[in-house]
């Protein structure tokens, strides 16, 4: 469906590949050189090897039993965003939610066999520290940066390729999209009917990230958006979309919008958004559909 | 059609001035203990352990919170005590009130109860954004679970 949707004119420089469990698309009018492709692959591999809890050789897997590793270059910037997310959502968003996801079966081996919910350690800043060039986890705890990691990686890839001063560039990791010098007209997939879209966003020099509970779902009410305070999947919001200057902020806001406090955080960040509740109601931010964020909803 | 939410859906959340917070029995969060009162008297709950009571007259306010699947809700309870008898109780901040409070806030621009959407065939878009494509490993495991469940 995604491929049909963009059948109307793929730029000559388009490049598709699978990575980080999703489909990446990089579109630019100046095709990527072999060296650039290799560099993008290496960049994604490095990030994945630091942050993926789905691979045994990753930094976060090594730290699951506690200990120290060399500080990943993105650790401090991402944890700073988690500070804001946690404060805004009263702890619902927490980078130690990995243990909660594992308890419900969303583990490295995809057992998908749920046991009782487990809440994440509430004061994660007392567990995770980043001093002296090291990332230290003071007790067994599983870091999961799923709320912002893919957005951060989209930013890294786009900013690397931007250095070559391309006229237009779009990086799309499974629907988390950032444009530089390019325009994209992006359909907002209906969370309960992937043949339909509930609106469109005209994106220009900005990022759009989405989060939804329907696709990464493996049982009755079981999906990957959990409240870290309870370890239980959220039930009120079905899908969120956020538009921000960077994909990391858009990704972060899209996660926060599943919880109380998310709309206020988006307001503070200047992020525009839409979300749909599990009853089908749609809400949007004050600037959505205005000059600040050109968009349309099919109400 | 886009409409803005009707504004006057106000459910009263009286913002009681709270000097501190008393732990409410059964609410289960680690609220600070301490004095939180308006009017005369001290909020010394420990003195209430004897059956003879011994609460100072006055109005006491405390906040408590509890977790729901999506949020931690906060309630504010105000008690008025005279001669060891609770003469008035006021509870504010139930979940519905919290929702209403949020919806009429400046943070939400509009609400629509019905978004029918359009078929992808009828709209020209360059991309689609929603639930991200899932990895092969996840989908394979899901299929395995389904087949085992069906067996």
Outline the fold blueprint.
The complex is a heterodimer of chains A (299) and B (151).
Chain A: H1 2-5, E1 15-19, E2 22-28, H2 34-51, H3 59-62, E3 67-70, H4 75-88, H5 98-103, E4 128-129, E5 134-137, H6 149-162, E6 169-173, E7 176-180, E8 183-190, E9 193-204, E10 207-212, E11 217-219, E12 222-223, E13 226-227, E14 232-233, E15 237-244, H7 247-256, H8 262-269, E16 272-277, E17 282-284, E18 295-297
Helix pairs in contact in A: 2-6, 4-7, 6-7, 7-8
Chain B: E1 37-38, E2 58-67, E3 72-82, E4 85-92, H1 95-103, E5 110-112, E6 118-119, E7 127-129, H2 136-150
Antiparallel strand pairs in B: 1-2, 2-3, 3-4
Tally of individual helices of chain A: 8
Counting copies of identical and different chains, the oligomeric state is heterodimer
Number of strands of chain A: 18
Rounded to the nearest angstrom, the distance between the terminal CA atoms of chain A is 22 Å
Q: Report, as a whole number of angstroms, the end-to-end distance of chain B.
A: 48 Å
* Structural class by SSE content of chain A: alpha+beta
Number of strands of chain B: 7
pLDDT average of chain B, as an integer? Answer: 57
Q: What is the structural class of chain B?
A: alpha+beta
Strand order of the largest sheet of chain B: 1-2-3-4
Task: Give the C-alpha Rg of chain B.
Answer: 25 Å
What is the general shape of chain A?
globular
| Mean residue pLDDT of chain A | 90
The arrangement of helices and strands of chain B along the chain is EEEEHEEEH
Helix content percent band of chain A: 25-40%
Main beta sheet of chain A: 8 strands, antiparallel
Secondary-structure element order of chain A, as H and E?
HEEHHEHHEEHEEEEEEEEEEHHEEE
**What's the number of structural domains of chain B?**
2
């Amino acid at each position: 469906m995604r491929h049909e949707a963009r059948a109307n004119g793929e730029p000559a420089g388009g490049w598709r590949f699978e990575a980080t469990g999703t489909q990446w698309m990089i579109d630019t009018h100046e095709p990527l050189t072999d060296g650039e492709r290799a560099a993008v692959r290496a960049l994604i591999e490095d990030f994945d090897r630091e942050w993926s809890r789905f691979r045994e050789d990753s930094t976060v897997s090594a730290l699951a039993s506690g200990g120290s590793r060399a500080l990943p270059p993105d650790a401090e910037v991402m944890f700073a965003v988690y500070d804001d997310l946690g404060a805004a959502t009263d702890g619902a968003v927490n980078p130690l939610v990995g243990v909660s996801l594992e308890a419900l079966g969303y583990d490295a081996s995809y057992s998908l066999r749920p046991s009782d919910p487990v809440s994440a350690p509430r004061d994660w800043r007392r567990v995770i520290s980043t001093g002296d060039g090291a990332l230290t986890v003071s007790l067994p705890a599983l870091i999961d940066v799923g709320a912002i990691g893919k957005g951060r990686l989209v930013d890294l890839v786009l900013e690397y390729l931007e250095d070559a001063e391309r006229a237009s560039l779009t990086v799309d990791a499974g629907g988390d999209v950032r444009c530089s010098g390019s325009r994209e007209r992006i359909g907002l997939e209906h969370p309960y009917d992937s043949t339909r879209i509930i609106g469109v966003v005209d994106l220009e020099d900005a990022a759009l990230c989405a989060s939804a509970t329907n696709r990464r779902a493996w049982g009755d009410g079981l999906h990957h958006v959990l409240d870290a305070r309870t370890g239980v999947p959220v039930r009120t919001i079905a899908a969120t979309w956020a538009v921000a200057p960077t994909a990391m902020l858009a990704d972060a806001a899209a996660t926060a919008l599943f919880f109380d406090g998310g709309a206020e955080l988006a307001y503070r960040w200047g992020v525009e958004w839409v979300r749909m509740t599990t009853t089908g109601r749609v809400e949007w931010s004050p600037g959505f559909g205005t000059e600040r964020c050109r968009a349309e909803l099919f109400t | 059609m886009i409409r803005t939410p009707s504004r006057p859906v106000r459910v009263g959340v009286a913002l009681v001035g709270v000097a501190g917070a008393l732990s409410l029995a059964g609410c289960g969060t680690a609220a600070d203990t301490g004095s939180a009162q308006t009017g005369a008297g001290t909020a010394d709950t420990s003195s209430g352990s004897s059956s003879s009571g011994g609460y100072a007259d006055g109005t006491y306010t405390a906040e408590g919170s509890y977790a729901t699947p999506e949020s931690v809700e906060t309630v504010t309870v105000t008690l008025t005590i005279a001669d060891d008898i609770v003469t008035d109780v006021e509870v504010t901040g139930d979940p519905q009130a919290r929702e209403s409070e949020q919806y009429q806030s400046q943070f939400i621009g509009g609400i629509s109860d019905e978004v029918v959407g359009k078929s992808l065939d009828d709209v020209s878009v360059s991309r689609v954004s929603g639930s991200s494509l899932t990895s092969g490993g996840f989908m394979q495991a899901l299929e395995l679970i389904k087949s085992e469940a069906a067996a």
